[in-house]
């Protein structure tokens, strides 16, 4: 893990305002995301964060895997 | 005092930001001449609105070529007049007061928004460029039915717009052979003279008259139809002036006894 | 003897516990009303008459922003004074005295409000927490508020007494920062509450008792906002205190600068009050010039908040680096995110930054016309008092509750979940409220669905905004549930010997760096008073000159029984008619007037 579990939770929580505000701002420039599109985008963001957080850091690999 | 360099930079930046805000808003309100609701208007007795020249009869009035004034009363739980009708391409000054508690007069989704406080009159000038319909809401809690307090503002095209008022009055009964006389009053609250035609339709008969109503004035006239042409029985009549109409009905009787003449009706 | 607060100051800990539990009770009630009105407004669940909505809203407002916040802050102020002066209060009976005054007062007010739900009791106070005349509440409502406020005044005296006693023994020492913050806040509060005290005692209470016939609606409204703006800082300054003296500690470091913290509180003392007219930009009868002065003062009031933002972030960074954090942003990873106290405060601070943005919009005299009294405003203050303050208070509870009970926190994980869920819920709710406000959706409205027109949504639809608000409201309610689980769980725990010591953060740049003049409370109070006189004398005189001290003839709403002449008599005969029937009477009276 790159960051602690608690920090990961907070980072994931932060995607919500980013997403919600992004949708609001995009609407000003006439790009309207539907609820479904926003949800998919949100899931993608969270997935990306999870992958980033859980990916073993170079060199110092995950101890359980490098065994 | 020991102030860190970063802190100094931040402090200066914060002050610059604040002064910039004040400058922008000052420019926005003073520089561009956008008037705010202030204390321009005198106070008024909320219980005596009925006798007030402006608010006794809440209405829209023309005061200049494209300039109008609207006198609006907010009260639990409605607005007068409703709907408010103004023409496009006009500049309308609203005067708003409250009859009972504090309300607001807010055109939804715009910055036309003011409190309506009993005893005070809010003044606000608004320009309407395009025709359209707006909702008016009360956004200041005013009592148990506050959520039902709404009104409408119609901005109509110039051809559709007028400030004409029509009222017509006729007899209830006439004897065959007498004429049916309908008294008509046409009021014109616009500045320009109104040249128009007053038409009375009754049964198959139609009579009309050209009238010119001076701006800010009213004209009275009487249109008559011979009742023999109508025949006995009940007849509905309608008076029309442009888009406005007013109607009533009359009964033509075979013969009227002398003593029955106008007996029942004293209108 | 351990270093836990309850062992150091057992008697004070008991008062603080009582204040906290009173505060939490109000939070629980307020929360229940919050979700009821959210679902009602958005038309997802309507089980009551829309008339009752306003009783619910009055209760939500009063319980949350008067009882929840103020009971909590008198608790932490008591903690701050005793801890930082390292001495108990002078006379604990005196302390219980003000606590009782507050408790009795708010109970009276609460009863008057809740009686509005039933026709069985001839009493109501559905006037919302702003109680604008000619809306009229039962006298009990006003009287309770008076007692409550007087209780807070006496509390202030209690803390001043501690400080005077301490100063006599330590003549040459600087006022410890937490005590300094308490004293400046209370001085601000004394000035601020003069406004409501005048509004209630001179006008509204006698009027509701039938002693005077009429009031000047614009005058009482202006006096309300004389108090109504600074009360915001009365909630916020304790939260700031937590950010200054506790957050650095939880981040693992020290407060960046003690002198600047003092400057910030002094600025709040002198600038909080002369700004209230910014709530009245849209009021007819107040000259534009006065509004302009209020606007300028408001903008300068941004300064202490901006300074706070800097100090808080700098202190957090310092803490993180002490904990081994590195890099430009890398230090963020080193912060103690596992700690709900820290995370809750950090998230609350973050939301406050967003609130600052929407607040600047509100403060702009001309832009205000677009948003005034729309749902935007509700979105704004759920970020400020509803999150910056409420979430900070809930987060620090996880540290204070063990201190004043001597019991370990029931669950740190639930606590962490709670603050995060609040953050997410508030994001949804507040964002949609702001957006709905821009479309003109009004606040304080049971059914913002109108017959004659529809609001034009920019993105999505009104239905979607409503759904987002309801979703946020549900998450917030869940978060409150988690909070109470933790409070109850902790209260039921046994005593623990393994609690952290009672201490607050030291400062990198200590009080000795602060110029002495900063501690001259008399000077700052005098300046504050002068500014208030400057900002308010002319507007008040002009309002009285225009409308008269007692205003024009207005119809009280609901109509009151005329004969209530003495206080006792009035209290016994529940003097006002209930809201619904009054509505009908008033409407028929009005139609009669019109004919
Ligand atoms: C469960 C959490 C909460 C929910 C679901 C909630 C929901 C709402 C809603 C929907 C309104 C708007 C009602 C209207 O204008 O028609 C409202 C108003 C308000 N809320 Fe909350 N809220 C919550 C928590 C809080 C907290 C924690 C505070 C402050 C500490 C707070 C303070 C207020 C105030 C002051 C009002 C305005 C009352 C008025 O206009 O008279 N709320 N709340
Ligand atoms: Cu209203
Ligand atoms: Cu304010």
TrEMBL record, chain A:
The chain crosses the membrane at residues 37-55. It comes from the Archaea. Keywords: Membrane, Transmembrane, Transmembrane helix. This is CbaC protein. The lineage of its organism: Archaea, Methanobacteriati, Methanobacteriota, Stenosarchaea group, Halobacteria.
Automatic annotation (TrEMBL), chain B:
Residues 65-167 form the Cytochrome oxidase subunit II copper A binding domain. Residues 254-267 have a biased composition (Acidic residues). Residues 232-246 have a biased composition (Basic and acidic residues). It comes from the Archaea. GO terms for molecular function: copper ion binding; cytochrome-c oxidase activity. CDD domains: ba3_CcO_II_C. Keywords: Copper, Membrane, Metal-binding, Transmembrane, Transmembrane helix. One of its GO terms (cellular component) is membrane. The chain crosses the membrane at residues 9-37. Pfam families: COX2. It is found in: Cell envelope. InterPro entries: Ba3_CcO_II_C (IPR034214), CcO_II-like_C (IPR002429), Copper_CuA (IPR001505), Cupredoxin (IPR008972), Ig-like_fold (IPR013783), NosZ/Cyto_c_oxidase_sub2 (IPR051403). Residues 228-267 are annotated as: Disordered. PANTHER family: CYTOCHROME C OXIDASE SUBUNIT II (PTHR42838), NITROUS-OXIDE REDUCTASE (PTHR42838:SF2). This is Cytochrome C oxidase subunit II.
Automatic annotation (TrEMBL), chain C:
GO terms for molecular function: cytochrome-c oxidase activity; heme binding. The keyword Cell cycle does not apply. The keyword Zinc does not apply. GO terms for biological process: aerobic respiration. It is found in: Membrane. Residues 20-518 form the Cytochrome oxidase subunit I profile domain. It holds the Pfam family COX1. It is a multi-pass membrane protein. GO terms for cellular component: membrane. Keywords: Electron transport, Heme, Iron, Membrane, Metal-binding, Respiratory chain, Transmembrane, Transmembrane helix, Transport. InterPro entries: Ba3-like_Oxidase_I, Cyt_c_oxase-like_su1_dom, Cyt_c_oxase-like_su1_sf, Cyt_C_Oxase_1, Cyt_c_Oxase_su1_BS. The chain crosses the membrane at residues 18-39, 59-82, 94-117, 137-160, 180-204, 224-247, 259-277, 289-313, 341-361, 381-401, 413-433, 523-544. Belongs to the heme-copper respiratory oxidase family. This is B(O/a)3-type cytochrome-c oxidase subunit 1. It comes from Natrarchaeobius chitinivorans. The lineage of its organism: Archaea, Methanobacteriati, Methanobacteriota, Stenosarchaea group, Halobacteria.
